[in-house]
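INFO  loader      accepted 1 record
INFO  loader      residues=178
INFO  predictor   begin
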Amino acid sequence: MFSYDPYAELATLRDFAPLELTSPDFEPGGPLPLFAWATKRGGEDRSPGLQWSQPPAGTKSIAISCFDPDAPTGSGFWHWAAYNLPAGTTTLASGIGDLAALPPGATVLPNENRTERFIGAAPPEGTGVHRYFFVVDALDVDALEIAPGSTPAVLGFNRHFHSIARGILMGTADPAER
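INFO  predictor   done
INFO  writer      dumping tokens
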């Protein structure tokens, strides 16, 4: 596991209000549940449940993502990216990582495997413990206008300029355990 926090420097560029982001399925900094691992590693490719505090006044939509900065790629690995969730959304049940299960109006972008859904943890052998950053942003726009098929990085860029509150929850996956 590396010490680099991909979200620490971004927090210095904007004044985000805090959102408390938790999961009924894992503790902050703790291991992801087996179902949130990739099927090829014995999991189910199922997103963990997430819940966050009430967003501040002025919130018009929600964006969410899951990113592994420890993937041996030089650019990390995006597991999930969804946006344009209704502003009143404060809970996503476990397994709600694909478009069909998300609230109406939401959009899911392709992950690194180019599928439009959550893809579970699959850290390669010999790469140590990986961190998975689940990030929820309350946005000041009804809808982000992002081209279909764009990358999660494009979402990250656009949501940065519209985020008024952010919550971050980090879980881990150890390849030695699977």
